[in-house]
Amino acid sequence: MKVVSNSSPLIILYKCGKLELLKQLFELILIPEAVHHEVVYNTKDPQQSEAISRCDFIHTHPITTQQVAFSHRIDRGEAEAIILAATLKADYLLLDDKRAQQEAKLYDINFIPTFSVLLKAAEKGII
Question: Most CB contacts within 10 A, which of 18, 45, 59, 77?
Fold first, then answer.
């Protein structure tokens, strides 16, 4: 299963102490470079940076710069995540922002907000 994530699900699950749920539910999470930069370098929380960097199930995947410039309504990380999900034909995109979700719909991308990740984990008895 191919799953791409934007930064907010990673940050929220880290702050809840539930980042490992992603490994248990999906095994592998792909993130674009802009998302990696947001969650590892643009944080004021060094523990977050270290925790996410150590996750062996989160892999950074490059995309070309030309692909990114398609919307001014969403940030670069969201744009790259949508492009990566579309390019890889991902099964799911972990995404919370409503405007970014609207963009994902334009590309027929199945997105899952963080709350639904938690519900899925509860349904499977993981939490």
Answer: 77
